[in-house]
Design a protein that fits this description.
Elements (H helix, E strand, L loop, with lengths): L18 E2 L11 H11 L11 H11 L6 E4 L2 H8 L6 E5 L4 H6 L3 E4 L13 E5 L11 H14 L2 E5 L21 E6 L12 E5 L1 H8 L9 H8 L5 H24 L3 E2 L6 E5 L5 H9 L2 E2 L1 E2 L10 E5 L3 H14 L1
Parallel strand pairs: 1-11, 3-4, 3-5, 5-6, 6-7
Antiparallel strand pairs: 2-8, 7-8, 9-10, 10-13, 12-13
């Protein structure tokens, strides 16, 4: 099963030559405190990292407000997903969503995300969903997630929630529940909001009894020295994350309005990207813009979406305006 991802800036030119709307990254780059932490970590590259990842654990514990026993630092959110895929039982995936879930867990059925209120889990089934969801950007409220979790508990299964973009809508987060609810597993990532995908820093949150056997499956030195230092620097950064969130919300609103003015149907989003239906085959447009080194994320490979849809990262005001003008010319 071949899975397509955004962020492919390795196409014969220098990565920085591309204006990349296909990867959902903070366009302002890493905050100053994150750059300083990574530089400090790089200075320790001559040493093996801490086997326990103690500094990273302490930083993530303070950042998430959870005991260390409930947190497993991982090499990006994708490693957390790969570990969750080892949970026993059949797996179902709420679609449309990130394609790797189904590939990793060998999902035996897809569930319509729009019909989750009617979802009846099979005995022992694990349900995967992304919140806020990639590629649509919508986020389920905690009340809906609480109801789903109760259903999974009753069926003897688990609810796997990927919160890779939760920093953009923290009121939707449920990771804090995991300490007391063994049926909940939460995946997370710091690479999107801090714009450091090359560092690979994520985490898996679960009840200690669930987490322990998953952690035992990992090789040693799972975090490099830079990721370890970045995680250790997380405590006390609430204001920094709030600033990132506020800038994104402002840019997202104006970007959505400009795209709607082009005739696109823009899906409501609580994340840092927008799903747009332009009502026509966007393949030729995507290729025309690629030739100009502007990258968009096609969405026809997501169940329920078509070649009319693209997913666009919310970038800076100037970059968003540049894309809107390029789309005007190409459409």
């Amino acid at each position: 099963m071949r899975v397509f991802h955004g962020g492919d800036v390795w196409q014969g030119h220098a990565p920085e030559d591309y204006l990349d709307f296909s990867a959902n990254l903070n366009p302002d780059g890493p905050p100053a405190w994150a750059r300083a932490a990574m530089a400090e970590g790089l200075a320790r590259a001559a040493y093996y990292p801490d086997l326990r990842a103690g500094a990273a654990l302490a930083g993530l514990s303070a950042h998430l407000g959870l005991p260390e026993a409930c947190i497993l630092p991982t090499a990006g959110g994708i490693e957390a997903a790969a570990l969750a895929a080892k949970l026993p039982g059949p797996h179902a995936v709420a679609q449309p969503t990130f394609q790797e879930y189904g590939r990793l867990c060998g999902a035996h059925r897809d569930i319509d995300r729009a019909a989750l209120a009617e979802y009846v889990p099979a005995p022992g089934e694990n349900l995967w969903l992304c919140n806020p969801n990639n590629p649509t950007g919508d986020a389920l409220p905690r009340e809906a997630l609480s109801d789903l979790l109760a259903r999974m508990e009753a069926a003897g299964g688990r609810l796997v929630v990927d919160e890779a973009f939760i920093h953009y809508c923290p009121a939707r987060g449920v990771a804090a529940w995991a300490a007391d609810r063994p049926a909940l597993v939460v995946l997370g990532s710091l690479t999107k909001v801090l714009a450091v995908p090359g560092i690979r820093l994520g985490y898996l949150v679960a009840h200690p009894d669930v987490l322990r056997p998953l952690a035992d499956a990992l090789p040693p030195w799972r975090l490099n020295c830079v990721a370890d230092a970045l995680a250790a620097a997380l405590p006390g950064r609430e204001e920094s994350f709030a600033e990132i969130r506020a800038r994104n919300a402002s840019r997202r609103a104006s970007f959505a309005a400009a795209l709607a003015a082009l005739g696109a149907r823009v899906h409501p989003s609580e994340a840092n990207f927008l799903l747009c239906d332009f009502g026509r085959d966007m393949g030729p447009v995507i290729e025309a813009l690629r030739a100009r080194r502007i990258l968009l994320r096609p969405c026809h490979m997501f169940p329920g979406l078509t070649n009319r849809c693209v997913r666009l990262c919310v970038r800076t005001e100037a970059e968003n305006a540049r894309l809107v003008e390029a789309l005007k010319a190409s459409l």
